[in-house]
Each structure stands twice: as structure tokens, then as C-alpha cells.
Amino acid sequence: MNNSQDLVPLGKTDIKITTVGVGAWAWGDRMIWGYGGSSYDDSDIRAAFDVSLANGANWFDTAEVYGLGKSERFLGKFLPSATNEVLIATKFFPFPWRMRKKALLNALKKSLKRLQLSQVDLYQIHMPFGRWSKPDWHMKPCRRTAYPWLPTRWSTAYLTAVSREMVCSLTAWKMTSPSLHTAHWPKAW
Q1: Are strands 59-61 and 22-23 parallel, antiparallel or unpaired?
Q2: Where are the domains of the chain?
Q3: Active site residue 35
Q4: Class for domain 4-179, per CATH?
Q5: Per-residue pLDDT tens digits for 152-183
Q6: Neighbouring residues of 39: CB distance < 8 A, sequence distance ≥ 6
Q7: Which of 130, 127, 137, 144 lies closest to 171 in space, CA to CA?
Q8: What's the N-to-C CA distance of the chain in angstroms?
Q9: Per the residue annotation, which of 35, 66, 147, 158 is the catalytic one?
């Protein structure tokens, strides 16, 4: 996995990712994965980050809800020491009390702060309409950015995130076509 032949485009963007990335769900999660007990600790997470990069992975997937933000904090702590480019995918979780479009932007700002970044490479809506939804990867190309079919309420928030250069690409993860609406994208993009 250490050569450019192992890189593939992320959707219809010019972002190149390795065919294998690292999911950081368990990083800092006490409830499901037992972080901090006898299972694993900070040094194990650091070792997993270093080994992943040493073996050619160039992207990590996290979410604001993984370890209640701890997964993003770990990545934010480790990223400055990486010698190669590391791409980050993170997710917004639309809790029932966060259905307004400003909730997405506020959550993204908090994720960026935890990650110690000004921009993420991929921002996703995490399981928006139930955990049994099926993935839907319809994307529309736009410069470096791929736009998905989005629920109307968040389409303007996503556009704001792109215009503020807070994200490179976006997707609505685990959404089925009947659940989605076509977003209205500016023709200038």
C-alpha cells in the first residue's frame, strides 16, 4: 500500500485516498470499546495511528459522536507529527434536537476545533434517518468538491461550509434515494 498505484479518487473529486483507510470509532470510546480500562489506552491509539501511516494508509474516518469527540481529539493531537499528507473524514450526527441547518455548521466548527484543522477532506451526515438506511453515493462534481443529494434543510449549510472552505467534499452517508431531495446548487460552481 505504499505506492501511488494504490490511490483511488474519492468519489468524483480530485482527492486521492488509499484503498484502505482507518476507522477511528473505537478511539476513546469507553461504552462500547472499553477505552481506558484494561482493553487499551492512549499509547495503543497512538501506536495504531503510527502503524497505519507507516503501512501506507493516508486517511482516517471519525465522527463527532465517536468517543463523544475523543476520537477527533486524538487525531487532532496526532496529525501535527505526521510526515505525509493525512486526509480526514468526519461526520455530523443529526440528533432529533439538531435538525436545523445551523446545527450542522456549529457541529462542523466544533469538529474542526477538536481536529485542530481549518478544513476536513470529507464531511458526512451520519445515519440521518435510522441506522438501517442503505448507502447512497450519488455525487455531483464541482471543482474539487463532490456534492451529494442532500436533505433540503442541510443543503444550504453544506454550501456555506464549502464556500467558507471548511470542507473539501461532502456526502450524505447511509441515505436511500427516497429519503433525499435534490439540492439546488449555484450555477457558478
Answers
A1: parallel
A2: 4-179
A3: no
A4: alpha beta
A5: 667 778 788 888 889 887 765 544 444 443 43
A6: 33
A7: 137
A8: 34
A9: 66
